């Protein structure tokens, strides 16, 4: 069967069919594959072929990217799903619950940043000492004034 005869209703898809169905460029699909988010195999002619489950995986990747989730985090999440079957609605619920928490934390940080920006409007000092946007977490504040040399064990030392 030639690749032209493989329909989307069939079990095997060409890279062009996946691109058309998902709206993701073939180059992006190859990139996802290089990062382990999706997988394919080669036919006798050396062309990529995908199983239908890839459509749902790509949908998940697109949605997660729209939420601002890093590709490496998406890959980690997808690695928890079986490769042999299409991700189910229950799989999606599990992933989306996890990503909702991630989004909540981001929103919290951005809200804080927005509130701190209020103090900077009309200021322009960009001072390392007083501007919250220049030194948002002020991680060295407890070590006293002046330059601080960070060691590789900084976090552990601070926790003691
Ligand atoms: S620019 Fe002055 S406090 Fe941020």
From TrEMBL:
Pfam families from the UniProt entry: MerR, MerR-DNA-bind
Residue span(s) of domain HTH merR-type: 12-80
Domain of life: Bacteria
Gene Ontology terms, MF aspect: 2 iron, 2 sulfur cluster binding; DNA binding; DNA-binding transcription factor activity; metal ion binding
PROSITE patterns (alphabetical): 4FE4S_FER_2 (PS51379), HTH_MERR_1 (PS00552), HTH_MERR_2 (PS50937)
One of the GO BP terms on file: response to oxidative stress
Keyword hit for Glycoprotein: no
Boundaries of every 4Fe-4S ferredoxin-type domain copy: 110-142
Keywords on record: 2Fe-2S, DNA-binding, Iron, Iron-sulfur, Metal-binding, Transcription, Transcription regulation
Protein name: Redox-sensitive transcriptional activator SoxR
Species of provenance: Natronospirillum operosum
Gene that encodes it: soxR
């Amino acid at each position: 069967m030639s690749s032209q005869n493989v329909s989307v209703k069939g079990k095997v898809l060409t890279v062009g069919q996946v691109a058309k169905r998902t709206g993701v460029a073939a180059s992006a699909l190859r990139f996802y594959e290089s990062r382990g988010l999706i997988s394919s195999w080669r036919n006798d002619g050396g062309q990529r072929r995908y199983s239908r489950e890839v459509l749902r995986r790509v949908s998940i990747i697109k949605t997660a990217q729209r939420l601002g989730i890093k590709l490496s985090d998406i890959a980690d999440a997808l690695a928890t799903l079986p490769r042999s079957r299409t991700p189910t609605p229950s799989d999606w619920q599990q992933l989306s619950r996890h990503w909702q928490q991630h989004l909540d934390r981001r929103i919290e940080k951005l809200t804080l940043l927005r509130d701190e920006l209020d103090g900077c409007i009309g200021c322009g000092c960009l001072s390392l000492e007083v501007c919250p946007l220049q030194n948002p977490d002020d991680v060295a504040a407890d070590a006293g004034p002046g330059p601080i040399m960070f060691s590789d064990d900084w976090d552990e030392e601070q926790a003691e």
